[in-house]
Fold this sequence. Notes:
single chain, alpha/beta, Rossmann fold, two-stranded antiparallel sheet, 10 helices, 10 strands, about 45% helix, about 15% strand, binds zinc ion
Amino acid sequence: MRKLYCTLTALLLSLLLSGCGAPSVPQPETLTVACTTCPVYLLAQAVSEGVDTVEPVLVVDQQLSCLHDYTLTMGDMKTIEGSSLLAINGAGMEEFLEDVLERRTYLDCSQGLDLLWNEEEEENDPHFWLDPSCAAQMAENLARGLGEADPDHADTFTANAEAVSLRLNDLQQELKEALSALPCRQLITFHDGFSYFARAFDLEIAASVEEEEGSEASARRITELVALIDQYHIPAVFTETNGPDSTAKALAQERDIRVGTLNMGMSSDSLPEGLTGLEAYEWVIRSDVNAILEAYA
Length: 297
Ligand SMILES: [Zn+2]
């Protein structure tokens, strides 16, 4: 059935192209890599740099802070069906893709990672891309998967992944240093997506506001959060790009503290225009560290 669908799609495409009067010059075969998340997409761009026959495409690109409760759209399905390779974040981030993952092979970027366990959810924490050293491992996984799909360019993918790893190691050291004099190392974030980020930069998550996906905190929870703010002298609470902010604002008003915004880097609209690949990934991590430095200054 899928074969038939692909054949029909190809037929339709060729009809469309010939209709536009495009010349039928034979092109080298393109390896389309469907990347489920924006970080996977940016790292796939970095790893395939210089190889024109590899084309990473982003599957989920909506204005959201994270992918919990996401529902697959027809457009997402088309992107996936039209790809030669499917690259996922893994560790449970792609719950919305379960059916697809059961029936097709895919490249899992979480391979070999030292995953954190989320006690409350009783599952692995999938937000590892916010730790630069984990992103380096993701790049290595991508290089290996791309190399299997396109052995002619395997050496380039490996060299690119190694360059990514070096850059990210430098980035982590630089930002760790920038954060070293922080007066408070406790963070209150909106959703519990920053444990790896905290691990990478010697910070601690005092609490996350959200009790259920997308929900704001209850009155009882607000009392608990205010107590934490007092206990650790926390100078700011954080919302997320594309996330709700009413609880954070209420907390900030209650204790006259600041509201900062963290970015999960999960949507292209949360990135500066024109920035791609490793530069875009680095920008996300840098902007999060800067948000903390500014809010805690
Ligand atoms: Zn999340």
